[in-house]
UniProtKB/TrEMBL annotation:
<dbReference type="InterPro" id="IPR020558">
    <property type="entry name" value="DiOHA_6PGluconate_deHydtase_CS"/>
</dbReference>
<dbReference type="InterPro" id="IPR042096">
    <property type="entry name" value="Dihydro-acid_dehy_C"/>
</dbReference>
<dbReference type="InterPro" id="IPR000581">
    <property type="entry name" value="ILV_EDD_N"/>
</dbReference>
<feature type="domain" description="Dihydroxy-acid/6-phosphogluconate dehydratase N-terminal">
    <location>
        <begin position="41"/>
        <end position="349"/>
    </location>
</feature>
<protein>
    <submittedName>
        <fullName>Dihydroxy-acid dehydratase</fullName>
    </submittedName>
</protein>
<feature type="domain" description="Dihydroxy-acid/6-phosphogluconate dehydratase C-terminal">
    <location>
        <begin position="362"/>
        <end position="556"/>
    </location>
</feature>
<keyword id="KW-0479">Metal-binding</keyword>
<comment type="similarity">
    <text>Belongs to the IlvD/Edd family.</text>
</comment>
<keyword id="KW-0456">Lyase</keyword>
<dbReference type="InterPro" id="IPR056740">
    <property type="entry name" value="ILV_EDD_C"/>
</dbReference>
<keyword id="KW-0411">Iron-sulfur</keyword>
<dbReference type="Pfam" id="PF00920">
    <property type="entry name" value="ILVD_EDD_N"/>
</dbReference>
<dbReference type="InterPro" id="IPR052352">
    <property type="entry name" value="Sugar_Degrad_Dehydratases"/>
</dbReference>
<keyword id="KW-0408">Iron</keyword>
<dbReference type="InterPro" id="IPR037237">
    <property type="entry name" value="IlvD/EDD_N"/>
</dbReference>
<dbReference type="Pfam" id="PF24877">
    <property type="entry name" value="ILV_EDD_C"/>
</dbReference>
Length: 574
C-alpha cells in the first residue's frame, strides 16, 4: 500500500472551512484569485529582492513572471513577495552590514507565510547568501534563480568590466594616465543592461557556487540577465519547484558536505571572490554542515583557475556563457568534483555537466593551460592571524606571494583616506600596508576596503601592486596581493591591533603563513596593554549587530542565528 501523502504546509493557512481559512483565503481573493487555486495545490513563494535601489536586481519582477508561468503550468499557485534588497554599490557603510538582516527577513517571511516551497530570486553580492542563509534556517523545498550578468561593458571599442576597470581607471587617473573626461565617459559604457556585475565578482561567484552546489538549474550562473534563455530558465525553475514540493526535496537534502565541497572547488576554478568564503561559512552554519575555513585551502587550494574572466583574467561573464558556462567548466574539472552530490533537479550533479562542451578554449582553459595552477583561495595562519586570513593568489602578483617588509599602519579607513595621497608618505614598494578597524565590528560590517589604493607617490612611479593586509573584505571584482579577513579583527582584540609602523611582517602565501616578526615578549606586552575601543552603537540594528556578530572565520553571522528553527508555526494570528 502506498504511503499516505503528507498534507501540504499551506493547508494550515488556506484549507478548511473554519474562520481562519476564511480569513486567509478571503483577503487573498482581493487580488482576483478564484476559488480553485486554494484547492490544495502547492503554494510557491517567490522571494524577490527586486528594488530600484539594487540596480542589479531591478529586472527581477520580470523574471518573477517567468517563474510564475512555470508554477502555474505545473499545477502550483505562485505568490511573489518582497524582502529587503541590498545593492552593493548603493548602501552605506556597506551592504555586508545588512546581509544578516536580510537573512532574518527571509527566514521569518518564509516561516510566517503559508507556502510550501520557495524560489529565491536575487543576485547582488549579499542577496544570494542572505536569502540562502534565511531559507536554510527554515528548510522548505528551495531553488535559486539568479539575476544573471549585465552585457559586457563597452568603451572606446573595448570590453570593460564592472568594478575591475573602475579600480584600474581610477588608478590611471591618479597616475595622470587618464583624463577625468575619459573617466566620466567610461561610466556610461560600463553598465549597459539589467543584471549583476559582469566580471567574476561576488555576484557571479555566488551564482557559480550555487550552480555547482546543485541549488539552481544548470546554466543559471552565467546566462546574461537579458538573454531570453534566462526567462526560459525561470519558467523551468517554476515548474521544478512544484515537483520538489511533491517530492519533499528540502534544502537540507541539497546542502550536504559534498555540495559545499563542490562549491569550494568551483569557486577556485572560476577564480571566484574571497567573499564566497564568509558567505559559504555562514550558510553552512545555518545548515549545520561541518565546513570550516581550512576546508577552502584543503579542498580548493590546489584547484587550477581555468576561467579567464576579470579580475583574474581578461574576459567577461557574457563570454563565459557563450563559451559553455558552468556546465562546461564543471565538465573540465569533473575529476575533482563529487559526481554524486544531490541537486534540486533530483539528479546527481554529474548530469549537469554531462555532454557540456567548451566553445572557446581561451575563455574556459584546458587543464594543461590553466590561467593559474593552484589558484584556490589560500588560508593563512600565524601570530598575526591566529584564526586565519585569506588571499586570492589568482588575483595577486606572483612575486609578492612570498614577501617580507616593514609595515605602514592606517588605524582606520579615514586615516588611510587622509594619508594615501601624501607625497611624503614614508613607503616604498616593499612596504606592507596594514589597515585596521574594518572587520565585522570595526567598520561595522566588514567593508570591501581591503584592496587599499597604492600610495600616490608609488603609483606615479609605476607601482601597481603591493602587499596589503587588513581585517576587511575586498570586492570580488578587485585584484592585487591583498590579505583579507584577518581574524580575530583588530576591534575584537586580534593581534592586528598591536602592529606598529616599522614592524616587519612576513607573508608566505604558498606555505599559508602570516607572521608579525617581533619577539614573543614584546608581542605579549602589547597584547596585554590593548584596550577595546568604545562601543559607539547604542540602539537599533547596529547595536544588535555589533554585540552579536561572529568573526570572519565563522562567516560573520549573528551568533543567535546560527542553525535552524524549521518551518512550524503553531499559533494563528486571530
Ligand atoms: Fe550588484 Fe555588483 S553591484 S552585482
Amino acid at each position: 500500500m502506498s504511503e499516505k501523502k503528507k498534507e501540504l504546509r499551506s493547508r494550515h493557512w488556506y484549507g478548511g472551512t473554519h474562520k481562519d481559512g476564511f480569513i486567509h483565503r478571503s483577503w487573498m481573493k482581493n487580488q482576483g484569485f478564484p476559488d480553485h487555486v486554494f484547492d490544495g495545490r502547492p503554494i510557491i513563494g517567490i522571494c524577490n529582492t527586486w528594488s530600484e535601489l539594487t540596480p542589479c536586481n531591478s529586472h527581477l519582477r520580470v523574471l518573477a513572471e517567468g517563474v510564475k508561468r512555470g508554477v502555474w503550468e505545473a499545477g502550483g499557485f505562485p505568490v511573489e513577495f518582497p524582502v529587503s534588497s541590498l545593492g552593493e554599490t548603493q548602501m552605506r557603510p556597506t551592504a555586508m552590514l545588512f546581509r544578516n538582516l536580510l537573512a532574518m527577513d527571509v527566514e521569518e517571511a518564509i516561516r510566517a507565510h503559508g507556502i510550501d516551497g520557495v524560489v529565491l530570486l536575487g543576485g547582488c553580492d549579499k542577496t544570494t547568501p542572505g536569502q540562502l542563509m534565511g531559507a536554510a534556517s527554515v528548510d522548505l523545498p528551495t531553488i535559486v534563480v539568479s539575476s544573471g550578468p549585465m552585457l559586457n561593458g563597452k568603451w572606446k571599442g573595448k570590453d570593460i568590466g564592472s568594478g575591475t576597470d573602475v579600480w584600474k581607471f581610477s588608478e590611471a587617473v591618479r597616475a595622470g594616465e587618464m583624463s577625468l573626461q575619459e573617466f566620466m565617459a567610461a561610466e556610461s559604457g560600463m553598465s549597459r543592461s539589467p543584471g549583476v556585475c559582469m566580471t567574476m565578482g561576488t555576484a557571479t561567484t555566488m551564482a557559480s557556487v550555487v550552480e555547482a552546489m546543485g541549488l539552481s538549474l544548470p546554466t543559471n550562473a552565467a546566462l546574461p540577465a537579458v538573454d531570453a534563455r534566462r526567462m526560459a530558465l525561470a519558467h523551468m525553475t517554476g515548474k521544478r519547484i512544484v515537483e520538489m514540493v511533491h517530492e519533499d526535496l528540502r534544502l537540507s537534502k541539497i546542502l550536504t558536505k559534498k555540495n559545499f565541497e563542490n562549491g569550494i572547488i568551483a569557486n577556485a576554478a572560476v577564480g571566484g571572490s574571497t567573499n564566497a568564503v564568509v558567505h559559504m561559512l555562514a550558510i553552512a552554519g545555518r545548515a549545520g554542515v561541518d565546513i570550516c575555513l581550512d576546508d577552502f585551502d584543503r579542498v580548493g587550494g590546489q584547484v587550477p583557475c581555468i576561467v579567464n574572466c576579470m579580475p583574474s583574467g581578461k574576459y567577461l561573464i557574457e563570454d563565459l556563457a557563450y563559451a559553455g558556462g558552468l556546465p562546461a567548466v564543471m565538465n573540465r574539472i569533473r575529476h575533482l568534483l563529487h559526481p554524486d552530490a544531490p541537486t534540486v533537479f533530483g539528479v546527481p550533479i554529474s548530469k549537469y555537466w554531462e555532454g557540456a562542451e567548451v566553445y572557446n578554449d581561451d575563455v574556459i582553459r584546458p587543464l594543461d593551460n590553466p590561467l593559474r595552477a593552484g589558484a584556490g583561495i589560500r588560508v593563512l595562519k600565524g601570530n598575526l592571524a591566529p584564526n586565519g586570513a585569506v588571499i586570492k593568489p589568482s588575483a595577486a602578483s606572483e612575486r609578492l606571494l612570498a614577501h617580507e617588509g616593514p609595515a605602514y599602519i592606517f588605524e582606520t579607513i579615514e586615516d588611510l583616506k587622509a594619508k594615501i595621497d601624501d607625497p611624503d608618505l614614508p613607503v616604498t614598494e616593499d612596504t606592507i600596508l596594514v589597515l585596521k578597524g574594518c572587520g565585522p565590528k570595526g567598520y561595522p560590517g566588514m567593508a570591501e576596503v581591503g584592496n587599499m589604493p597604492i600610495p600616490r607617490r608609488l603609483v606615479e612611479k609605476g607601482v601597481r601592486d603591493m602587499v596589503r593586509i587588513s581585517d576587511a573584505r575586498m570586492s570580488g571584482t578587485a585584484f592585487g596581493t591583498v590579505v583579507l579577513h584577518v581574524s580575530p579583527e583588530a576591534n575584537a582584540g586580534g593581534p592586528l591591533a598591536i602592529v606598529k609602523t616599522g614592524d616587519r611582517i612576513r607573508l608566505d602565501a604558498l606555505r599559508g603563513e602570516l607572521n608579525l616578526l617581533i619577539s614573543e615578549e614584546e608581542f605579549q606586552t602589547r597584547m596585554t596593554a590593548w584596550q577595546p575601543p568604545e562601543q559607539k552603537w547604542q540602539r537599533g540594528y547596529y547595536k544588535l549587530y555589533y554585540e552579536t556578530v561572529l568573526q570572519a572565520d565563522k562567516g560573520a553571522d549573528l551568533d543567535f542565528l546560527v542553525g535552524k528553527s524549521g518551518s512550524d508555526v503553531q499559533r494563528e494570528s486571530h
